[in-house]
Design goal:
single chain, 153 residues, globular, mainly alpha
């Protein structure tokens, strides 16, 4: 029984040990903080749109970095498209080379909120705290599911 539990736990944890970064939990937390998941959300006096509250200049940066994304800034109301934009923006600005150390979720969230140098700005710390709180909710939900699946072994 103990060996099965250890094996089960190891299997569940293996994805965390890979070198591929899974940003899905962070993206979800950011989306919930930004818009509560509303694709029609409009903020910053009409300057930010969609579930990730993307500004036109943010969109332009992302598409300039990865022209294969295409589209128009108004497409940022589509969750899947907006996530491509956020990921391209992170690939451009949330890099170890730019930051000078390994990139964290805090860096990614703060860059999303405060622009290319958002990870340095004191003004983005409260934003990160909101995202981190939301991330903990996601992790707690997943750990409850993990615990439930382990008990079924």
């Amino acid at each position: 029984m103990i060996a099965e539990l250890i094996l089960s736990t190891t299997i569940h944890l293996t994805p965390c040990a890979t070198s591929t970064y899974d940003d899905s939990k962070l993206l979800h937390a950011i989306m919930m903080v930004e818009s509560g998941g509303d694709p029609n959300a409009v903020g910053d006096n009409g300057k930010a749109i969609g579930p990730y509250q993307i500004h036109r200049v943010y969109w332009m940066d992302a598409v300039e970095f990865d022209p294969s994304i295409g589209g128009k800034d108004s497409d940022c109301t589509n969750k899947a498209y907006a996530e491509k934009i956020v990921r391209a923006y992170w690939k451009r600005y949330a890099t170890e080379r730019r930051i000078g150390r390994p990139v964290t979720d805090a860096d990614r969230a703060r860059i999303h909120n405060g622009g290319p140098n958002g990870f340095k700005k004191a003004a983005t710390r409260p934003y990160w705290e909101k995202v981190k709180k939301r991330l903990k909710k996601v992790v707690n939900i997943l750990s409850c599911r993990l615990t439930s699946s382990e008990s079924m072994v």
